Amino acid sequence: MATMDGLRREDRAPVAGWRWIVRWLRRRLPTGLYARSLLIIIIPMVLLQSVVAAVFMERHWQMVTERLSLAVTRDIAAIIEIVETYPQNSDYGEIIRIARDQLNLQISIEPDGDLPPPRVKPFFSILDGILSDEINDEIHRPFWIDTVGNSNLVEIRIKLENKILRVLAKRSQTYASNTHIFIVWMVGTSLVLIGISILFLRGQIRPILMLARAAESFGKGQKPDNFYPRGADEVRRAGLAFILMRERIERQIEQRTAMLSGVSHDLRTILTRFKLQLALAGDNPDLHGLNDDVNDMQTMLEAYMAFARGEVEEDVGELKLSEIFAKLEADFALHGKTFAYSIEGDDEISVRPNAFMRLVTNLASNARRYANRLDIEAKHNAKWLTVVFDDDGPGIPEKNREDVFKPFFRLDAARNLDASGTGLGLAIARDIARSHGGNVTLGDSPLGGLRATIRIPA
């Protein structure tokens, strides 16, 4: 069993290593659809060209170089055979002329001597190795070659019996020097294809980005303008589905608002009759409690209508955080409470002004009611707007921090309406924050009370 467990651990090691590589690649690779689509096109193209360059080009280059070097080597071998077989003039003028005119080689025959010391062979030189092998196979004489440098000539020296044959050949005669033309064409064509792919990809991804922006705007409570399905069939279907979904949601909101407006109208009629009957009954001490109940019902009804409407009809506008906080500071000073705020980033925000004002006011009013001090810290960057409320009040138990966002939920045990309000303040606050695409959360404050955090997209 121990051996089997060891084997299992050994089997799991490669899997764990592979998973680590996959996670590393995921962290390094781009996350955008546009960039990933480009990688899907570029990576296979680069791999294909690398294989072609490494396999086909290398073999083609080597084969052509071998044939050219073999041809030059055989020409040199023929010259050596003529020099050693047939009598020549003292200046070898005739054989030099034939080599120059017929073989395109510049030769000279020098007195006997020693060959220069061998040069260091370059590591990546195909010509040096191939030409040396061909001379060894065809001529079988001591030789010295110089293929290094940017010169257009290759120098070859062959040691004969009592003389040295010096040959200067053009590099193009011994070496496939036009291979770069193929590489230039291959790379140039690839760049053109990549450019065309980028244009097509931008055209295909743009509708997806427009759909994402429209969905994001709708999630923030904004109405996306001039959006219509476009692009590929699948993207068009997704865009059409989004439009139909948006229309259904808007119809449901309109129906809910219309229904609640009707209910409100009916209830207000009944409450008006109650007030009229109570007014006709005169100043009766026994009816004071009923008057208070009617007034509480009126307040509760107005609060519920405001919660149900959710400020959906308001358009997005510009609002300054400093103006909101200045009004809250004056309100706290009027009630003898301590208030401080700080703003980090841009002061101007793009929200539904009245709704956002109500969101901030509801949270600040709760702090003013239960605490003596409130500190607000606002951070506005390119992506998010975060507003943190810290007070020194009694706070809210952790187990009730989600329940307080439910409509009509109050921490006080009694159901009668008192200073604690109708139980809709936090529910309205979260509803407004979510209609902007964000949320409101509660936590512990460093001041000892409650921390409320608003976080919405900028």
Question: Any key phrases for this structure?
Answer:
alpha+beta, 11 helices, four-stranded antiparallel beta sheet, 458 residues
Overview of the structural elements:
By secondary structure, the chain is an alpha+beta fold. It has helices spanning 2-28, 33-85, 93-102, 126-138, 171-174, 179-219, 233-280, 288-309, 321-334, 353-370, 425-435; strands at residues 106-111, 143-146, 153-159, 163-170, 317-320, 338-345, 348-351, 373-380, 384-391, 439-444, 450-457. The strands form three sheets. Strands 6-8-9-11-10 form a five-stranded mixed beta sheet, with helices on one face. It starts with a helix and ends with a strand. The relative contact order is 0.06. Mean pLDDT is 80; it is low at 413-420.
Q: What's the arrangement of strands in the largest beta sheet? A: 6-8-9-11-10
Question: For the terminal residues, how far apart are their CA atoms?
Answer: 59 Å
Mean pLDDT across all amino acids = 80
Number of helices: 11
Helical fraction equals 55-70%
